[in-house]
User: Fold Hydrolase MhqD from Rhodoplanes serenus.
Amino acid sequence: MTPVVTTDALDLHRHRVAPATDATRPPLLLLHGTGGDEHDLIELGHAVAPGAALLSVRGNVREGDAPRFFRRLAEGVLDQDDVRRRAADLAAFVAAARERYGLAAPTALGFSNGANMAAALLALHPGTLAGAVLLRPMVPLDPWPTTVPRPVDAARPGTPVLIVSGTDDPLMRPGEAERLAVLLRQDGAAVAHHTVRAGHGLTGDDVAIATAWLARRPFVS
Assistant:
């Protein structure tokens, strides 16, 4: 599905941009968890990819006072129509932001709700992301799309994806991260899945794994 890019697409999301200081690093698209904002993952982005340009986005859905990237009907029950609509909005925003700020296709760094949105982008809008680091994700789409048109220049078989799940995460169903890895591999992604001794919150192990994985990713302009 090709996102609709308009002149006001940048207004779809409040965002923050940190310019690159290392031109060899691909840019990161930072997608926070529930209750975060566009400032939330800046420090993490600098830690895992020193010198990379950062495009950090605030979700424009509210759950009480907590920003999110899409609605949910209950804990672990996602509004499927809203996931698809918000993914299209974010894909259009990324296209507009790339043009405005002169960015290459970004690698997403998403936590929890932000990781779920990044996974939805990979499935619904191939070519928007050059790769993704998914920290504590779940499967965001049910059913998983199987007939999404994939332009030849955007299909990119082997899109690199890192999933990091926690052994004691109370918010994840057993096998959820493994199921997501299988679905992404079926779409042609090159998925690495790591499990850390942690709950839903991030740890130093998450930072170390993401840093090492991103350091091995080549820059694609």
Observations:
- Confidence is low (pLDDT under 50) at residues 1-7, 151-156.
